[in-house]
Write a sequence for this structure.
């Protein structure tokens, strides 16, 4: 069975259904919000791979390398992720190395691990926001490149979404 | 003319974003400048700070291809009501990233444009600045940052004339491979100062 990690900002009743799904699926709820990254780079130059802020955001970053899939569920917010989900990803840059490399003519970080999980994005409350969807598509591709993910899949949900739409 | 300079760097104290806004402030004479520090304040304070402003100028670093969560949270809270506080405001944005390529800020500029639209404000201009790591070690307007200086000159004029203009992304006038080498040396130096061996930077 493939291992997968779900990061989401869904209401608690739906989150309970996600948690009960199966033993190979780990769930990380983005709220209550984790503390914001403070831009200290400690995860690169003090405690490599681990954020210096001691809260549960560390668990998400620790779980990343073991996954086959990372599923990110977020309310579409200004063409990107919601603040709570974004706060978790901002705290996870210790997953990659500080060093740079060139990919397709652009600078990106060197990866710590030889393989990375597939990234799958679900954006909800996307009705009537075609321009924001376009931005979100580009964001998912850019995130996948920066996290070393070979494949990225994405889905938009017009209104709220149900758990069955995620756990296909 | 009242202008809000919103430093949205998650770092408290000095930062590349603050340096950029200080360079811009020098080019905005005879205006009322309101400084706002996102990292140490909340959304309600942001709404108060921008009250009656003609221009809102945001500066922040690119975080995971987007807006840092501290600012994103404040924008998500203020967008329904900010237009009442600053009805005539145009939004100008300066984003810097640690990569060499200024064009990698284009996505976050788009996100700020979506915020502007949802808030009912007017887009002024966005500037995407590559090689943010150089901003605190070289003078803006000279040498490798000469082009950035000229871009900020034009931005300041646009703000003063209440003009909108196309977004611009810029790289430093400095070889990319040297920037990369300098960055790598910098990481190793800082790690050593923290008592780490070179190999420990790669440890997992």
């Amino acid at each position: 069975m493939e291992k997968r990690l779900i990061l989401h900002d869904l209401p608690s009743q739906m989150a309970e259904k996600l948690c009960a799904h199966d033993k190979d699926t780990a769930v990380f709820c983005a709220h209550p919000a984790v503390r914001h990254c403070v831009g200290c780079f400690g995860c690169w130059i003090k405690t490599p791979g681990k954020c210096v802020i001691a809260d549960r955001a560390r668990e998400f970053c620790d779980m990343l390398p073991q996954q086959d899939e990372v599923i990110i569920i977020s309310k579409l917010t200004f063409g990107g992720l919601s603040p709570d989900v974004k706060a978790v990803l901002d705290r996870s840059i210790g997953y990659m190395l500080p060093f740079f490399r060139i990919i397709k003519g652009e600078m990106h970080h060197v990866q710590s691990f030889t393989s990375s999980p597939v990234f799958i994005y679900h954006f909800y409350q996307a009705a009537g926001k075609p321009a924001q969807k376009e931005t979100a598509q580009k964001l998912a591709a850019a995130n996948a490149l920066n996290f070393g993910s070979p494949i990225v899949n994405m889905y938009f949900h017009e209104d709220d979404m149900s758990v069955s739409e995620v756990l296909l | 003319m009242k202008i809000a300079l919103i430093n949205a760097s998650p770092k408290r104290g000095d930062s590349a974003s603050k340096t950029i806004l200080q360079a811009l402030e020098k080019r905005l004479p005879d205006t009322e400048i309101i400084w706002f520090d996102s990292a140490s304040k909340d959304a309600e304070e942001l709404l108060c700070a921008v009250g009656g402003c003609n221009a809102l100028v945001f500066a922040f670093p690119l975080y995971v291809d987007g807006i840092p969560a501290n600012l994103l949270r404040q924008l998500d809270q203020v967008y329904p009501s900010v237009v009442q506080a600053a009805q005539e405001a145009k939004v100008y944005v300066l984003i810097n990233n640690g990569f060499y390529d200024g064009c990698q800020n284009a996505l976050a500029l788009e996100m700020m444009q979506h915020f502007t639209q949802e808030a009912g404000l007017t887009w002024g201009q966005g500037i995407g600045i590559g090689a943010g790591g150089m901003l605190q070690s070289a003078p803006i307007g000279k040498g490798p940052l000469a082009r950035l200086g000229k871009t900020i000159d034009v931005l300041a004029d646009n703000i003063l004339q209440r003009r909108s203009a196309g977004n611009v992304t810029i790289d430093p006038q400095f070889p990319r491979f040297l920037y990369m080498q300098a960055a790598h040396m910098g990481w190793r130096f800082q790690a050593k100062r923290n008592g780490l061996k070179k190999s420990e930077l790669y440890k997992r």
Notes: Strands of chain A lie at 4-8, 25-29, 69-75, 96-103, 106-111, 118-124, 152-156. Chain A is about 30% helix and 25% strand.
